[in-house]
Amino acid sequence: MEIEVISFGKIAEFIPQQKISLSNVSNTDELKVYLEKDFPALAGIKYKLALNKNIVQSTLNLNNNDVIAIMPPFSGG
Amino acid sequence: MSDKKIKNIFSKGAISPLFIADSISKHSSKTNIGGHSIFMGQVRKDEIDGKLVAAIEYTAYEELALNKMHEIREEIFNKYPLSCMHIHHSLGTIKAGELCLFVFTSSAHRKPAIDACTEVVERIKAELPIWGKEIFENDTHQWKENI
């Protein structure tokens, strides 16, 4: 399946927006492992995922054409 | 309330003190109001490792932030007897000394306005996907972290 990855804040400095083809990755927990392997800088920092504009609280299944956002800790205000 | 349309809280650039004054004056016709509470966030010229913050550049995951803000707004209106609540957050580059956040709550008596204002500010900082990049006077940067 193919998913779109977008990222924000300091994570956007090393993970540009891109489409990723996945095999053997079916949920967001497995995606985290995949991303941290592909982008080692991600492994050392705190981040949250959002799947199709909903913040991921516990693992969710992925589907073709899903949009995943990788978000570092918020710092608005 | 849940059929209410999602309001945009974001605008590009600093929040002008004149906009805030105008916003206050618009409430003079709402004579059931007895108390307003206002929070204004201002970009601080922090010194970090000898470098001074010249500006903060704000970005957001706007759609997610506005959905979340809508949820927070509904929860706050259910919790406190407010007459109204207005929220504005800047995006883009805001210079030190300029305003980047404006939260304005009003109620018949002071307490709900004050408590709702405090709670909304805390929730904006903790729950909205917004990021501040602190730009130093020498053009280097670091990513802001909320305390």
Explain what you see.
The complex is a heterodimer of chains A (77) and B (147). Chain A is of the alpha+beta class. Chain A has helices at residues 28-38, 40-43; strands at 2-7, 18-21, 48-51, 54-55, 67-71. Chain A has a single domain (2-71), classed as Ubiquitin-like (UB roll) (Roll). Chain A has 2 helices and 5 strands, in the order ββααβββ. A 5-stranded mixed beta sheet of chain A has the order 2-1-5-3-4, with no helix packed on it. The relative contact order of chain A is 0.32. Chain B is an alpha+beta fold and 147 residues long. Chain B has one domain: Molybdopterin biosynthesis MoaE subunit (Aldehyde Oxidoreductase, domain 3, Alpha-Beta Complex), CATH 3.90.1170. In chain B, strands 1, 2, 3, 4, 5, 6, 7 and 8 form an 8-stranded mixed beta sheet that branches. In chain B, β3 (47-48) and β4 form a beta hairpin. Chain B is globular and about 50 Å long.
Please give the domain count of chain A: 1
Considering the protein shown, what is the CATH homologous superfamily of chain B?
Molybdopterin biosynthesis MoaE subunit
Instruction: Please give the oligomerization state of what you see.
Output: heterodimer
- CATH domain class name of chain B: Alpha Beta
Straight-line N-to-C gap of chain A: 38 Å
* Main interface by residue count: A-B, 15 and 27 residues
CATH topology (level 3) name of chain A: Ubiquitin-like (UB roll)
Number of helices of chain B: 3
Please bin the fraction of helical residues of chain B.
Answer: 25-40%
Strand content of chain B: 35-45%
- If you compute it from the alpha carbons, what radius of gyration of chain B comes out, rounded to the nearest whole angstrom? 16 Å
Q: Remind me, CATH topology of chain B? A: Aldehyde Oxidoreductase, domain 3
What general outline of chain A do the C-alpha atoms trace? globular
| Average pLDDT figure of chain B | 96
Poorly predicted sequence stretches spanning 5 or more consecutive residues of chain A: none
Radius of gyration of chain A: 12 Å
